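Help! Submission page says 'invalid entity' but I think these are all valid:
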Amino acid sequence: MSRLTLLIDCPDESGLVARVTGVLHRHGGNIVENGEYVDPANDVFFMRTVTEGIEDADLLLRVLQTELPSGAKVKVTGARKKRVVLMATKEPHCLGDLLIRAKFQDLPMDVTRVIANHETLGELTESFGVPFHCVSADGLSREEHEEKVRELIEEDSPDLVVMAKYMRILSSEFISGFRNRILNIHHSFLPAFIGANPYRQAWERGVKIIGATAHFASEDLDQGPIIAQDVIPVTHTHGPKEMARNGRDVEKRVLARAVRLVLEDRVVVTGNKTVVFE
Amino acid sequence: MSRLTLLIDCPDESGLVARVTGVLHRHGGNIVENGEYVDPANDVFFMRTVTEGIEDADLLLRVLQTELPSGAKVKVTGARKKRVVLMATKEPHCLGDLLIRAKFQDLPMDVTRVIANHETLGELTESFGVPFHCVSADGLSREEHEEKVRELIEEDSPDLVVMAKYMRILSSEFISGFRNRILNIHHSFLPAFIGANPYRQAWERGVKIIGATAHFASEDLDQGPIIAQDVIPVTHTHGPKEMARNGRDVEKRVLARAVRLVLEDRVVVTGNKTVVFE
Amino acid sequence: MSRLTLLIDCPDESGLVARVTGVLHRHGGNIVENGEYVDPANDVFFMRTVTEGIEDADLLLRVLQTELPSGAKVKVTGARKKRVVLMATKEPHCLGDLLIRAKFQDLPMDVTRVIANHETLGELTESFGVPFHCVSADGLSREEHEEKVRELIEEDSPDLVVMAKYMRILSSEFISGFRNRILNIHHSFLPAFIGANPYRQAWERGVKIIGATAHFASEDLDQGPIIAQDVIPVTHTHGPKEMARNGRDVEKRVLARAVRLVLEDRVVVTGNKTVVFE
Amino acid sequence: MSRLTLLIDCPDESGLVARVTGVLHRHGGNIVENGEYVDPANDVFFMRTVTEGIEDADLLLRVLQTELPSGAKVKVTGARKKRVVLMATKEPHCLGDLLIRAKFQDLPMDVTRVIANHETLGELTESFGVPFHCVSADGLSREEHEEKVRELIEEDSPDLVVMAKYMRILSSEFISGFRNRILNIHHSFLPAFIGANPYRQAWERGVKIIGATAHFASEDLDQGPIIAQDVIPVTHTHGPKEMARNGRDVEKRVLARAVRLVLEDRVVVTGNKTVVFE
């Protein structure tokens, strides 16, 4: 039976759960998964519901918009696989992991292409039958380089762009063109060690735990809404190189987890934070 | 404003969420927390809702029982602190932790008394102003000993009995008198290492992780519904003694976590499992 | 500068560390990493040392054998990449992860071939330029099937055979031919849920944590020496299918970790346990 | 048999392990635990050894100082319990945990007194038979207040001062009087959220993991050498208050772990980092 996923984000008022579930019930929908959250600081209501038995997504969307307070944002999505563009530089661990997960249907996405600023990962990408585009930054201004990348992305009209260790900083202009649609993995436990060389920073500080953070890219570097984080222990015996090596395993799993959450419509951005329905 | 917590466990049918939230809305209740779960293997619906603005718990209970399918189990609880009897033997870590948490209102419970089969923990207990009863098993049959313990417990009519490392095995008869009201901490990651000396068993097997399990006591030893588990890494350098020492920290935190979940009415037992609303 | 790794396993007596480090010092070796462990239950001494500045591994081995008590087992290895045969069935996650790690030098191994009992993973394997051999069990007795597999393995004289979710049970005879050289990943936190369908067993028991275990294969199924374990939390919402999906990420990382430990000569088997120098 | 613990910190040169273990062997010492580490960035050698069978700690110290390079720092300690002053403010969780561990010999320390800047924890402290001193800051300058605290500490000549959630900032002058002898617990995963209200900062940033850090107090606030860290997951449903509540459990266990490491002479400070022999 076909499933629809509802994501609702609207000013809070009494009775919203009853109204939404009432609509679903009257239209023959059975609730398979349900989550709500009220942000008490801002009086905003969030709801994610997976329902079975309703065929007409557009009708459901219109009915909900009528029933809910003005200002409500409602999203109804079906089971279509999302279209994803991956971006990378030289490190294979995140890219390879996502390509395998896509190929073997572990993640519900079609990778339409991989864009990189070096040739290194071309062979790996193409061995999965995915088109690879190297856009070298050599001899180009930042604007020119980003313009080329943007054009390639827009050819695919992706639902999501995933920076799988894409190691160039993107301009605010670039990011604002894909608001909350660019997912990045930062190799530290943000907000610790913002910026370059986080493993070296971690080693210099002598921390006993390192981590990785998956977040939506925002105009402020490393400041976007966090989706998922994870950590591993380290000791004094780990130099920056060992931290980087062990950290790659964390980066890989945090990124895969965040991609899954976004693909399954479990993430709502609110201000600079996320509500994640798990 | 006063809060009520609803726990519902009933045969699944379409529209249950709409019905329950509709009742709450019509009676002026605002939903503060909400969770549902449908067990697909048995078609059972579970719901936990915290609501503000409804004063009459009994009325709400009656209305819900009318609206819900026959066979529905409904529980409505107010903010009253639960009454808890703690049981222990010689080890202070779990008992001391719970006594401190109770004294400083970290856990919403009144510890009405501590029952132990040794004198060791009497001074500690009494320093918290809690009555201590040592019921030695010396010279008593198991039935006689349990009868004495049962009488002491029943004097307090507790909501919950917590075995904070009570190291005697209780008979099925004893446990069946307090079904799903005795919470136990087992010092292994169940179902591994059932029975005596789990740390020694773990050391003999050469595991690299050890754990602890909080569960409701059931007639079958170490087989009751699991509420919470946690683990820590160990290495070849940990003998049974070091495992036990490190394991105590896990036992302590798993037990405290499970006690909190039960005190906050977040746990529903279904068959030999639990649904835990977090 | 070239490095040698020493692994020593011998009856304990006083002064062993002084003797070994004295030998290294007199032969111009500088100690880069060092670990010792005495098993107090069996009076066995274990030592792992990485040394720089000694060129002649054979000479060092002979000197150490002279200096150490009779009964000492000494292993001296250089930086040669180990030869590894991977075995798999249909699931790509562990195999794909190891192939990427090998290709990009994250793990110091040459994968000489992949042997599977189904065709599913052939394309993935060959896209990494690694020979793939499908040995179907159809129409063969267990002995015949294992004989074919053994012949293929022996053609490569591998240092290690890694069962990357190879889902057939191997006979004691087969395993005894590769003692402590077959590494297996079991999809449970052993010794919980030995045998078939561990995720279903975990779901039926209602555990709140699931795990994976990498171990050397032994004649007794799922009883071999454990090298590494890890776990993740689950809730009542996870059925066997969701546990399996989430569990795959744990299997993948535990297996990769155990393979690394073995490739770096960090693991000594003693009885049914391992000493792991990290 | 009596045990001695050696801690060595000296400029690296070849043969140090052989020299130290040779000394121990010639004096009849048997090595029970041994760890070494060479800091490759600064060419410093660290060693911790536990030895049995040597009675004369002073002789051993003198011999080692003769054998080791000039500039070597050597510490030899026996099994004496360390003397510890605890400092606290109003929160009972860390203080209570340490008092129970001391009383029941889980940690090898004598708590000589508790100093607090509020009366709140007096009853709890005294119920453990430990002297309690409230030094209110009311009406005192920072210098005057710290002078009173310092005098109380110095009366006990403690090996260690543990700030068990002491919520006043200490001056550089105060701290420099107890260099690397004041252990503090900071309620964040440093270096994230330095300074006041870390849980509020964490909530505002929308992190998905929070943590705690045990470190030696240094002249720069929250910048001292880190001994231990740990974390727990949080979600969007956790406000600052819930983060604080859950965080207390992490603070408690990280602090206890760091105290144990220091009491067992497992921690060497080097620059702004620690070498921790576990």
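Support: the input was valid. A stray whitespace character was the problem, and the output above is from the cleaned input. Chain D has two domains: 3-78, 82-276.
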